[in-house]
Amino acid sequence: MRKLSLKRIRGLLLVAFVLAFAPALLSSAAVKPGFVETVIATDVTGTRATLTWTRAKNATGYNVYLVDSETSEIIGGKPIATTTDCRCVVALRPGRMFSFQIFAYLQNGRKTVENEEGSPPVDVEPQTLRVLCYGNGYAYLEWDETEKADGYILYRYNKKKGKYKKLQTLQDTSCLVSIPEGESYKYMLRSYRIKKGKRVLSTKSNELKVKGKKLEVVHGRLWQAWLNRDVIAKDKETGENVALKKGTRVLVAYHASGPIDATLLFSGGQQGSTYTVNGSYLNYGELYLAPSYTYYSKNQAESFINCGGYTSKTNYLIWISQYTGSVHFFVGSQRRWKEQRVAQCIIGGPMGHTAVGQYELLDRGDPAHIYFYWNPYKEWGQAFHGYLDRNTWGALSYGCVRLSAADFAYLKRLPYGTKVVSY
Q1: CA 398/CA 395 separation, integer angstroms
Q2: Mean of the per-residue pLDDT values for the chain?
Q3: Distance separating alpha carbons of residues 161 and 284, to the nearest angstrom
Q4: Is residue 30, in this structure, part of any structural domain at all?
């Protein structure tokens, strides 16, 4: 019988040891599941999002946790979902920041072993980008304020490069964008937070397609005037110099002695090009109103008030349109005003023009007159009140705004402090 060397015996013993404990060694190596390296959020809406992540080694499944966005501490102590897949739909709420982490686990018989290290947190901020109102060649976009956001970045799609490009960085939750009539642009929004001096972007908002619209221009108070001499005026649109004859009728927004924009006025009320002329070359007449009972459309009225950013101490707002001789009533809040009622009216004429500016409904203890302007030094003001005669429209009063009995009754129900925009 051949004798075995000591070296040979040691080698055989080592092999036997390995074979005897191999199952245990393999089992212990598989006790701990791997680590989820990447998580992304897709299909984000105001109420839900889909989380997807990379598969972890030796993982039986995954626990989804809601965590604090600043400290990454687990909120509630328990997973909000458990899945064997690498995706999960989570619930959201508009205007709130959500942060999620994924922990892989291994099911070994009755024992569940979860990796003590979770995935990198993924922040989800549900945002809905929408059009607030349109104007000529522009649109006002808005979105909900996001909790803990330090700012927002608005992107516009670049067709030539085939990707979104940053348009503006904003602190507000609304933005005016230029869109030529008939053209379409796509927009997308992301909020951001500053963490350790670095800007961390949120998930993308919805993709919003906006088409430029043409709306009627809102005029303020206009005056009739005519040239008292032959002049050379510059066309506002083309920049060309044009000869205008003495007696040419024009419309202007105010009286001036220096340069002023003047729009040609033809017989029948038709308006032509606008020129820059010297106000001292004009003789001024009376107010010029739009054709009788011609009001701005609801869409145009809401666009004018919302894009103007007007606020009110109450949930109501009033607009006196001195060009159309009408009063528009709105309900809502800043940039969310909705027109509820339109009333024809009489405004100030030759003996006293209705004030222009921003005012409020005032309590002067006179139920027959609801004042919106008051001069304490002269102890005199301008108010809304009923008709005094059979006239129901025009520039005829001493500055007060006269309404029908039904419209004045509606106005009297509005609270004092309501903003009055006179333009």
Answers
A1: 9
A2: 88
A3: 54
A4: no
**Domain end residue (candidates: 211, 231, 263):** 211
Q: How many CB atoms lie within 10 A of CB 391?
A: 11
Query: How many angstroms separate the CA atoms of 151 and 190, rounded?
Result: 9
In a domain, 168, yes or no: yes
User: Does 318 share its domain with 412?
Assistant: yes
Sign of the torsion angle spanned by Cα atoms 103, 105, 110, 111: negative
The 10 Å Cβ neighbour count of residue 284 is: 13
In angstroms, rounded to a whole number, what is the distance separating the alpha carbons of residues 362 and 69? Answer: 48
Whether residue 138 is found in the same domain as residue 199:
yes
Region of residue 320 (left: phi > 0; alpha: psi -120 to 50; beta: else): beta
**57, part of any domain:** yes
> Parallel, antiparallel, or unpaired for β 249-252 and 222-227?
antiparallel
**What pLDDT band is residue 10 in, cutting at 50, 70 and 90?**
low
Number of H helices, E strands in the chain: 3, 33
Judgement on whether residues 325 and 405 belong to the same structural domain of the protein:
yes
State mean pLDDT over 280-308.
Answer: 88
Number of structural domains (the chain) is: 4
Question: What are the E-state strand segments in 119-178?
Answer: 122-124, 130-135, 138-142, 151-158, 163-170, 174-178
Q: Which of 347, 335, 329, 345 is nearest to 404 (CA)?
A: 345
Domain assignment of residue 99, given as a range: 39-124
Last residue of a domain, one of 263, 288, 313: 288
Listed in sequence order, the residues at least 6 apart from 235 whose beta carbon sits closer than 8 Å to its beta carbon are 241, 242, 273, 274, 275
Q: What is the DSSP string of 69-83?
A: TTT-PBSSSS-SEEE
Residue 336 lies in a domain: yes
Rg (C-alpha) for the chain, rounded Å, is 35
Same domain, 162 and 246: no
DSSP bridge partners of 3: none
pLDDT, mean of residues 77-82? 94
Residue labelled with tokens 């025009």: 394
Report pTM: 0.63
Q: What is the CATH number of the domain that holds 329?
A: 2.40.440.10
> What's the per-residue H, E or C state across 355-398?
CCEEEECECCCCCCCEEEEEECCCCEEEEEEECCCCCCCEEEEC
